[in-house]
Amino acid sequence: MSIVKYEILNKVAEVQSFTKAAELLGLTQSAISHAISSLEKEFGFNLIHRNRNGVKLTEDGQEMLIEMRKVLTAQEHLQQAASNILGVNKGTVRIGLISTISTHWMPNIIPIMDSLYPGIRIELREGDYYEIEQWLLNGEVDCGFLNRTSSKQFDFLPLKRDPLLCIVSNESPLYDNTAIDLLEIENLPFIMPSYKGTNDVIANFEKYGIRPNIRFELFDEKAIVAMVEHNLGISILPQMAVAMLPQNVKAVPLLQESFRTIGLSTKQKLSPASKKFVEVLEQWLASVKQ
User: Fold this and answer.
1) For position 88, what pLDDT does the model report?
2) Which family does it belong to (predicted)?
3) What's the confidence (pLDDT) of residue 234?
4) 192 and 180 in one domain?
C-alpha cells in the first residue's frame, strides 16, 4: 500500500492539486486526501501546504519525495524485469541441429536474434536425426531440426522442402544427364549416406523399389563428396548439403519426385523465448524464399 501512497504524493506534487491528481489516477478526492494524511501520520510531519491556490510540498515533503521516487523507480525496474521475462527479452533457447542447418541457416538467424533480443541466449547442439530426437525426448533441447518424425510425442513444423540430388563426377556415365532415373543408379557403385534416424535416401529407394549397389556407407557429407570426386561411386544428397562442390563434381536432379522436408520439432509447449526464435526463423525463411 505504501507504494500506492508514494505514487499519489508524486502525482499531487506534479500537478499541485488533489482534484487533478484524483482525476489522473482514477481515484476520488477523498482517497487522495486520506493517502496524504496517512503518510503524514506515518512519518510524523507535514508533507504539503494546503492553501487557496492549491497544494505545495513542504521542505520535508520535497526531501521525502526524492526518496519515494527512488523507490518508485526501483519498482518500475522490477516490473520491467518481470515484463522482459514474460516478453521473452530474456531466456535461453536450446536447439538441436543437423549440419546443413548449422552451415546455411544459423549464421544468418543468430545475428537477427542478437539484434532483436540481446537478452536471449542461444545454445546450439549438433547431431544426426536420431540424436536430436533423443535430446528432445530427454528434455536436453527445447526444439530440434528434423527431416520428419514418426513419433507422436513431437509437434513438427515443416519449414523447407529440400530436393534430393544425385552427385556424380565428370568420369561418371551419368555426368552429362540433365536428369537421372533412379533405375540408372542400381548398377553403379553407390555411396550411401549413413546416419541414425529416418534416412531420406533409403526411404526414397524403398518408395520406388530401387536396390542400390552400395559400395560404402559414410556419415560425413564432405567425405561422401570426396569419394564421388575421386570417382569411387555416386551418391544422393539433399540440395542444402551440396551448395559447394568440387569442379569435377555436379549435382543432377532425379526424375522421380525426391525430397526431404526439413522442419522444427518440439516435445513440450514452447517457451516465450523459443517462440521468438521460431518467429525470427520463419520470417527469415520467408525473406530469402527458401
Assistant:
1) 57
2) Belongs to the LysR transcriptional regulatory family.
3) 94
4) yes
Which domain range does residue 240 map to? Answer: 163-259
User: What does the chain come to in residues?
Assistant: 290
The region that residue 157 occupies, defined by phi over 0 for left and psi between -120 and 50 for alpha, beta otherwise, is beta
Nearest CA to 45 among 63, 23, 66, 70? Answer: 63
Residue 236 near residue 193, CB atoms below 8 Å: yes
- Ranges of residues in the chain with a pLDDT under 50 are 1, 290
Q: Of 90, 82, 78, 79, which Cα lies nearest the Cα of 272?
A: 90
Tally the domains of the chain. 3
Q: Tell me, what's the pLDDT at 121? A: 86
Distance CA 241, CA 129 (A): 15
Q: What pTM was computed for the model?
A: 0.65
Give Cα separations from 56 to 64, 66, 141 (angstroms). Answer: 13, 15, 59
pLDDT tens-digit series, residues 241-289: 888 889 999 999 999 889 988 999 987 677 778 888 999 999 999 888 6
- 220 and 184 in a single domain? The answer is yes
Q: For residue 260, count other CB atoms closer than 10 A to its CB.
A: 24
Specify the pLDDT at position 50: 81
DSSP states of 16-62 as a string? T-HHHHHHHHT--HHHHHHHHHHHHHHHTS--EEEETTEEEE-HHHH
